[in-house]
Amino acid sequence: MLKKWATAGCAVIMALALALAGCGGGAGGSGGSGGSGASAPPDGGSSAGAPAAQGGASGEEEGSAAAVPPGITMFAQEYGGDGAIEVPLLEPAEGQEATDTLTEVNEAILAFAGDYEQYMAEEPGDGTWLELKCYPFRNEKYVQIVLTRAVYPAYATQGNIFSVCYDYQLDQIYTIDEAVEAEGLDFTTPEAGLTDVLDDAEKELGVASVSPAAFVLSQTGNAFFYKVAFNPAEQGEPQLEQIFARFADGSYDPYDGETLPLGNVGAELVPMDPPLACQK
Fold this sequence. Notes:
Layout (H helix, E strand, L loop, with lengths): L9 H12 L17 E2 L30 E10 L2 E9 L8 H14 L15 E10 L3 E11 L7 E8 L4 E2 L2 H8 L8 H6 L2 H6 L1 E10 L6 E8 L10 E6 L5 E3 L26
Parallel strand pairs: 3-4
Antiparallel strand pairs: 1-2, 2-3, 4-5, 5-6, 6-7, 8-9, 9-10, 10-11
Helix pairs in contact: 1-2
């Protein structure tokens, strides 16, 4: 059974989440009766560094007043056995109200988190467990959330990865399609940096496809997280899928299924209390 930080039924969770998004309360709060209370204040903690020039959304007016960043609160945070559940939400800074865009960010996070609540109070009873891990970043322009999600035991997959990048200066979501276009990335053939880090078995299978699934903007360049599918070993077998980080210098680092490789991302995680799995 998971150590309990927060529990709520599915309908209550959604209602509380939407209420949190529109509360306009101070950051670092409990996130409502369904929240865990773990949070990072909107104007404190560690900066993620200045955004890369090529990664920013266009249209910011010269001389415009700096907006106060939203807070990051852990709406659900539980650990126990092999499982980990971390569901962050953004909340407006003190004295401000949530915009439609901020609410859209939270809805996207909850949509990716999916049916996590069934793994919280007790395990489903079918021998499966959930790992839903959060990686929060923030600087003077963006609040960024990266999430990984996998139900175990699993075969031939490391699960899914997701990110959302909120430009709180412009109240816009900077999408992965915009980031890929700004970077000029091409996925028609695997890059040398990827083939260099493949093991012998992966090289023998051969890469079937490479697709960007998440990203992090930073001052030193943008990092992307790719889902790489390999050709099946035999007809009828599922494709092996792995997650790889691609850094600004073109180098790659494979995800080990536990913690995302962030060494060359160029952005610092926002410290949370209690700490996240990636901060322990």
